[in-house]
Amino acid sequence: MTFKDLHIISMKSFSRDMIDHILDTAEKLEPIASGKTKSDLLAGKVLAVMFFEPSTRTRMSFETAMMRLGGDVLSLGSVDASSIAKGETLADTIRVVDGYSNAIVLRHNKEGAAQLASEFSSVPIINAGDGAGHHPTQTFLDLYTIRRESHLEGLKIALAGDLKYGRTVHSLCYALSLYGAEITLISPKELRMPAEIIEDLRSRNIKVTETDSIEEAIADVDVLYATRIQKERFPDPAEYRKVANSLQITTELLEKAKPDLKVMHPLPRTNEIDPKVDDTPHACYFNQSFYGVPVRMALLALVMGALE
Amino acid sequence: MSHEETPVPEIRVHPIKNGTVIDHITAGQALNVLNILNIPNAASGVISIIINAPSVHGIKDVVKIEGRELNVDEVDKISLISPKATINIIRNFEVSEKTHVHIPEIVDGVVKCINPNCISNSNEPVSSKFTVSTDGQRIILRCLYCERIISEDIGNHLL
Ligand SMILES: [Zn+2]
């Protein structure tokens, strides 16, 4: 299995073997990610970080990953100040930056941008989110978190919140289907998972249950994955408050859960999780955001050919 | 012979000497076929159009074009809006070739993506690309960039 020069665009192009290999590699690199061990695995390599829309956490996570491996980071400055504001195409920008770097991390507001970039780049493109499209490194870090904090095999997981628009939740479901997970979907009726995705999962022999009550689902699951509910999805603020309160994860709610239930959230949270939950052993959303570093280190080292 | 099988479009239109008869066009798609062929701009001969002609398999449209044979690109486009169409090349009043349209695996620069936020709809130096599949009834196009699916009214999205 070689990942050298592979573009990381969509989870769909990864088999279970490939995912397992990435997660194994991340686990080996975790001591370096936390700063316990030093590494110069990517010394002399340059990562170009091109964010056409802001996402500070994702950007910092990639930059940390590169620096922990001894590599250098080249950042596209503010988009307004750069040639993009002068009307340069993404294709041209990529062809220029390609000459300065060993890999390019791209975040863009248009869907399909990473695919387009890959057609013009001789170095690997890593998609860090394209519009409402893919965000594969988020899915890898979610899978890694589940593997580290719980277990991927025979997993029972509940996903709660905005399941309609959350594309990262969609690709997480597809990835989990490779591991035979049982999936419970918890959402208000306005924000239900698209029917075709549920159909796809069922056609892969995945047990999918839909409910609008977190209380019903929580007793039986190993992982509860909450996502942010955006106020602007609701025309009526009262309706939003009703939904936000009914899906809130509180310590009282967690009394009904298995003792080793893990609560995940991609962050930032609004009021999906009561801060009191932070001090319970169930909380793993801060670990989850740290795990982005070893996972991105693994991807960088693999696509740059520093690791097999 | 049953009632449905009797009418044959050929009896309503004069035979042509040289040209193309596109038969079994999905009913209602004849005008889109003309659009694909850039007719009337790109034709000099007589064009005959039959819309909603009864046939063995229900109603269909037929287009006859004198003095012109179609190229592969045109036939590919027709297949997207009319997967059951047949192309009959007429030479000296005789059908010299009869082929079913072939549904391509990928279409490039043929259909515009319906997603306004798709990178293929910006000023990048790429053409729109779709993978083509079918569920037996409909043609399903999936944008190679944003993965948006077009399965209805494809004729309205032709470039
Ligand atoms: Zn598209």
UniProtKB/TrEMBL annotation, chain A:
Binding-site positions, L-aspartate: 86, 167, 228
InterPro entries per UniProt: Asp/Orn_carbamoyltranf_P-bd, Asp/Orn_carbamoylTrfase, Asp/Orn_carbamoylTrfase_sf, Asp_carbamoyltransf, Asp_carbamoyltransf_Asp/Orn-bd
One Pfam family cited in the UniProt record for this chain: OTCace_N
Catalytic activity: carbamoyl phosphate + L-aspartate = N-carbamoyl-L-aspartate + phosphate + H(+)
Cellular-component GO terms for this entry: cytosol
UniProt domain Aspartate/ornithine carbamoyltransferase carbamoyl-P binding: residue ranges: 7-147
UniProt keyword terms in alphabetical order: Pyrimidine biosynthesis, Transferase
Known pathway: Pyrimidine metabolism; UMP biosynthesis via de novo pathway; (S)-dihydroorotate from bicarbonate: step 2/3
Tree of life domain: Archaea
UniProt record, GO biological process: 'de novo' pyrimidine nucleobase biosynthetic process; 'de novo' UMP biosynthetic process; amino acid metabolic process
SUPFAM superfamilies: Aspartate/ornithine carbamoyltransferase
Enzyme Commission (EC) number: 2.1.3.2
Keyword Transferase among UniProt keywords: yes
Residues holding carbamoyl phosphate: 57-58, 107, 135, 138, 267-268
Record's keyword annotation contains Transferase: yes
PANTHER family: ASPARTATE CARBAMOYLTRANSFERASE (PTHR45753:SF6), ORNITHINE CARBAMOYLTRANSFERASE, MITOCHONDRIAL (PTHR45753)
Assigned protein family: Belongs to the aspartate/ornithine carbamoyltransferase superfamily. ATCase family.
Quaternary state and interactors: Heterooligomer of catalytic and regulatory chains.
Function: Catalyzes the condensation of carbamoyl phosphate and aspartate to form carbamoyl aspartate and inorganic phosphate, the committed step in the de novo pyrimidine nucleotide biosynthesis pathway.
Protein name: Aspartate carbamoyltransferase
Species this protein is from: Methanococcoides methylutens MM1
UniProtKB/TrEMBL annotation, chain B:
Protein name stated in the entry: Aspartate carbamoyltransferase regulatory chain
Biological process terms in GO annotation: 'de novo' pyrimidine nucleobase biosynthetic process; pyrimidine nucleotide biosynthetic process
Cofactor(s) annotated in UniProt: Zn(2+)
Pfam families named among the record's database cross-references: PyrI, PyrI_C
The Aspartate carbamoyltransferase regulatory subunit N-terminal domain, residue ranges: 12-102
Alphabetized UniProt keyword annotations: Metal-binding, Pyrimidine biosynthesis, Transferase, Zinc
Domain Aspartate carbamoyltransferase regulatory subunit C-terminal: 107-153
Complex and partners: Contains catalytic and regulatory chains.
Chain positions recorded as Zn(2+) binding sites: 113, 118, 143, 146
Function statement: Involved in allosteric regulation of aspartate carbamoyltransferase.
Entry GO CC: aspartate carbamoyltransferase complex
Keyword Zinc attached: yes
Lineage: Archaea, Methanobacteriati, Methanobacteriota, Stenosarchaea group, Methanomicrobia
Similarity remark: Belongs to the PyrI family.
UniProt cross-references to NCBIfam families, sorted A to Z: ATCase_reg
Keyword set includes Heme: no
PANTHER family in the cross-refs: ASPARTATE CARBAMOYLTRANSFERASE REGULATORY CHAIN
Top-level division of the source organism's lineage: Archaea
MF GO annotations: metal ion binding; transferase activity
Cofactor note: Binds 1 zinc ion per subunit.
